[in-house]
Design goal:
About 30% of the residues lie in helices and about 20% in strands. With about 80 residues, it is an alpha/beta fold. A hairpin with a 5-residue loop joins strand 4 and strand 5. The longest helix has 9 residues. It is globular and about 40 Å long.
Length: about 80
């Protein structure tokens, strides 16, 4: 991988990057992208649970590139499907 390439991340990657304290390095080297739902999930959870990882909202918020869409397997973004 080369510097500046797009890296799509999910909730688990966001949390693990904060746990490993490499989020800033990751986002400085790559163009990290996610969807709003993953960002939202990364900020929630049981704070009293042993091993809970705090995700700093101000560090992650600028990385949402597709706030109301979802990714297809080809990397294209499609609008969210209506809920039933």
């Amino acid at each position: 991988m080369q510097q500046g390439q797009i890296v799509l991340v999910d909730t688990n990657i966001i949390i693990e990057a904060f746990r490993a304290r490499c989020w800033k390095a990751l986002t400085a080297y790559y163009r990290v992208e996610t969807v709003e739902k993953c960002y939202e999930e990364a900020l929630t959870g049981d704070r009293l649970r042993p091993g809970y990882v705090e995700v700093e909202p101000r560090c992650a918020v600028g990385k949402i590139r597709h706030p109301s869409g979802c990714f297809s397997g080809t990397g294209h973004v499609f609008p969210e499907l209506p809920r039933r």
